[in-house]
Amino acid sequence: MHYEGTTYRPPPEADSLLLQVTVGCAHNRCTFCNMYRDVPFRRISMEQIEEDLKEARGIFPKAERIFLVNGDAFVLKAKMLGKIAEKIKFHFPECQTVTMYASIQNIGSKSDQELMDLKRVGINDLYVGIESGWDEVLTRIQKGHTVSEAKQQLGRLSRAGINHIANIMLGVAGRGNGVENAALTAQFLNETSPGLIWVGTLGIFEGTELHAETARGSFVPATEIEILEEEKALIRNMELEGVAFYGIHPTNTVPIRGALPRDKQKMLDKIDKAIRHYGKVALERPFQRVSL
Ligand code: SF4
């Protein structure tokens, strides 16, 4: 198998076969992200993809779920994604779902018909970097979409029958803004009905624009207690039925997981317990994260 650059996949895809179809991230501008700074974006050839699928078949007797690597693999044209899905069906007939990271811009570049065709060939459960439901924050982090664009594109995705997983980032609004960010983000999630909510926490990584902003004082990171209060406000404000909340990410101080609304109180209690355990004094400062 060929893997170029660092390979990232979401924690829920730990058991999926990873197939590289792009290198890097076509956007590569989010101010907090250092994942693909060192690798220019490019597409992998169909020849290499097919070679990898043949090799993978010899290693994995069965792969019911395949995750396409890397940062925003849904950037590929619908025609190319359709061809990849066909090859997957040929080599792994048992594969039920082909999934990957997708941006709002990637969805917007496909027609309604193309989205429906992609769903038909097994593409589903796209991991979409939402981060926040607050326009001011999205502009500052250079996410490349607005709240209303995200609502529109996720609506199109859902009408085509494709589920999405909303990636949310705690702490992204900076000091003093966590609870407001949580309220706006919860409102966004309530309106866009993700299949799963995946929550991570902002880190200030060297080499990123956010690191420079923090050094200049134009961005002040939230304290850890604010981040935990933000997570509580997010959980409290969500009015979704039967949606999984997956707050297990290496950047999170307290691993939280449950189904909404059933486990709402249980998750809130777990965060409160952690706050009591660490003590408010220890949490009154920003924690340094090592990597995404
Ligand atoms: S957060 Fe995602 S979209 Fe933004 S630069 Fe990083 S990989 Fe690309």
Question: How would you explain this protein's 3D organization?
Answer:
With 292 residues, this protein is of the alpha/beta class. The protein has two domains: 1-124, 2-Layer Sandwich (Transcription Regulator spoIIAA); 127-292, Transcription Regulator spoIIAA, CATH 3.30.750.200. Helices cover 40% and strands 16% of the residues. The chain contains eleven helices and ten strands. The strands form two sheets. It has an eight-stranded mixed sheet. It is globular. The two termini are 24 Å apart. The protein binds iron/sulfur cluster (SF4). The site of iron/sulfur cluster has 12 residues, from loops.
In a nutshell, what does this entry contain?
By secondary structure, this protein is of the alpha/beta class. It is built from eleven helices and ten strands.
- Please report the total strand number as a whole number: 10
Q: Report the top-level CATH class of the largest domain.
A: Alpha Beta
Low-pLDDT parts are none
Shape: globular
Radius of gyration: 19 Å
What portion of the residues fall into strands of 2 or more residues? 15-25%
Structural category is: alpha/beta
Distance between the termini: 24 Å
Which sheet architecture does the biggest sheet show?
Answer: 8 strands, mixed
Helix content range? 40-55%
